[in-house]
Design a protein that fits this description.
With 189 residues, the chain is mainly alpha-helical. It is built from seven helices and two strands, in the order βααααβααα. Strands 1-2 form a two-stranded antiparallel sheet.
């Protein structure tokens, strides 16, 4: 199964929980290797045994993120069925830069490798769910950089339409909030 790297901005509290889980997994791996050594295995044998156990006992963090995204995509508002993305839509989704929206504080950038079919479903749901408000933002000429000057009515219209957008990072943040690891970790906002 091929995997695609996805870069998203997630809440710092989710990053802290995932980092805590990663450290906890490492501690468990070390403790397991030490226990195997005490049981008579050589250090090399213990390390090989732990390496064989790792995919099941201590999977990579991206597997938790992918599982959460799977669950989020199964919810009624994102499940589809969606029309497949056209080549032009896929090209637009591949462009760097952020979608219109408020600057949320407390976010950190993370990269996760997820199965290519999951990434395609994620991108398709994000695009299809967002295409009507994006089209309206463009039609009303409410998109632009810092040079765009909007009056109060336009700002309100823009904010209303932007709230209806579902970019990939928003879906991932919602997935982690609803279905992510619940390890006891300090909240770091």
């Amino acid at each position: 199964m091929d995997k695609i790297n996805v870069t998203v901005m997630i809440y710092a509290r989710h990053a802290a929980r995932l980092e805590f889980l990663k450290k906890q997994q490492k501690r468990e791996e070390i403790a397991t290797a030490e226990e195997l050594e005490r049981a008579g295995r050589t250090r090399r044998e213990a390390r090989k045994a732990v390496a064989r156990m790792r995919p099941v006992e201590w999977p990579p963090l991206e597997s938790f993120v992918a599982a959460a995204v799977e669950q989020r995509l199964a919810e009624p508002d994102l499940i589809g069925p969606w029309e497949p993305l056209t080549e032009d839509e896929q090209a637009e989704l591949a462009l760097s830069g952020r979608w219109p929206g408020p600057g949320l504080g407390g976010l950190v950038q993370r990269n996760y490798k997820m199965p290519d079919d999951l990434v395609m479903r994620l991108r398709t749901a994000a695009w299809r769910r967002s295409e009507a408000p994006l089209r309206e933002l463009r039609r009303r000429r409410l998109l632009g950089g810092a040079a765009l000057v909007l009056d109060e009515t336009q700002r309100l219209q823009r904010d209303e339409l932007v709230a209806r957008l579902y970019p990939v990072p928003r879906i991932v943040r919602e997935a982690l909030t609803r279905y992510g690891p619940t390890a006891d970790a300090p909240d770091e906002n």
